[in-house]
Amino acid sequence: MKYIQSIQNPQIKQWKKLLTKKEREKTNTYILEGFHLVEEALHYRDDIIEIIVSEEADLPAYWDVSDISITRVTPEISRIISDTETTQGIFAICQIRNATTKDLTGKSYLLLDGVQDPGNLGTMIRTADAAGIDMILLGKGTADIYNPKVLRSAQGSHFHVEFLSGNLQEWIPKLKAANVPIYGTALENGIPYKEVQPEPSFALILGNEGNGVSKEVLSLTDKNLYIPIFGKSESLNVAVAAGILMYYFKN
């Protein structure tokens, strides 16, 4: 077990940099924070490079960390590398999973077109996991799934769902070629979602919080759907809308 006391240690600066997308992409690694997320990562231990634990925290006795590098740090260092106001004092440095294939596998898909809010993205990932969605396709402008806020909102579901990042306009024709129905979400020229009979295979497209799904992507869909509003609210949060639709189509 290593022990780091100095906040000037170069390793501390490196861990802190992992809170930025640029450094995550450069090193192909990311940082997890909190007991629950680190415990979930231990089920996929090949992803873990190192566990960092504050002097004020203790590793649970039932965790098997015999083959994992452990570094103890001071509470001050723990606060420096934390992305939360009150840290639990436990972190894991993990390897980013690179997709081994560009093939679209599975029957159910969630396509995200410029979903920018990390909390929304994490909630959608968690809900997709719960609903049994096979794959999430992350279009341009969508937040980084390894953003600390996304990781906290997803609560470990990024370990359970397959992801691909790229151009939705390239993937949609491939899904159509595989006979996967493509459903966009839009009020204009849309129909109430319950007018569509769920099928075993489907792809749902959710868009940017302010602008919705882009016109270019909507032009490629088979049908565009909307969720009726019965009260006085103008719209639903995109993560809530995604949850309603995913569970309806997975029924």
TrEMBL record:
One of its GO terms (biological process) is methylation. GO terms for cellular component: cytoplasm. Pfam families: MRM3-like_sub_bind (PF22435), SpoU_methylase (PF00588). Keywords: Methyltransferase, Transferase. InterPro entries: Alpha/beta_knot_MTases, MRM3-like_sub_bind, Ribosomal_eL30-like_sf, rRNA_Methyltransferase, SpoU_MeTrfase, SpoU_subst-bd, tRNA_m1G_MTases_N. The keyword Methyltransferase applies. Gene3D superfamilies: 3.30.1330.30, 3.40.1280.10. Residues 31-100 form the RNA 2-O ribose methyltransferase substrate binding domain. One of its GO terms (molecular function) is RNA binding. Belongs to the class IV-like SAM-binding methyltransferase superfamily. RNA methyltransferase TrmH family. PANTHER family: RRNA METHYLTRANSFERASE 3, RRNA METHYLTRANSFERASE 3, MITOCHONDRIAL. This is RNA methyltransferase. The lineage of its organism: Bacteria, Bacillati, Bacillota, Bacilli, Bacillales.
